[in-house]
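Researcher: We're teaching a course module on how sequence relates to structure. For the next exercise, students receive a sequence and then see the predicted structure as tokens, so they can try to spot secondary structure elements on their own. Here is the exercise chain.
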Amino acid sequence: MAAGEYLKEQYDGGRILIHVHGAGTRVLFYSDRPVKELIHEGNAPLWQEALADPRPYARWVVMAGDQATLRGDEVFLRLYGSPIISDGYSKLFDRQGVAIYRRNDPPPAP
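Model: And here is the predicted structure for the students to work with:
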């Protein structure tokens, strides 16, 4: 899958906000990212906090959805078109209904 391969090649650190069901499963399989780097629906309450504002938590945001119908995964439904995403992140990938964003500021020091 193109989105997963893109993430695998471009990943430069930081946590990834992603809904692991549906397209997220395929993205993760092809990206080869370990679970410890993810913020997903199994990480409550961090998941809910990151959906409200991912900037303090996630360097990367992966969302799957249809921009025409506004249907998609939980990340898409909560963040698509949000000023948090448009002001805080840059869209680096957008194909086959999957968009990948990276936070604009540099990643935190290890």
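Model: If you want an answer key for the exercise: Strands lie at 16-17, 38-39, 60-66, 71-72, 89-95, 98-103. The chain is about 35% helix and 25% strand.
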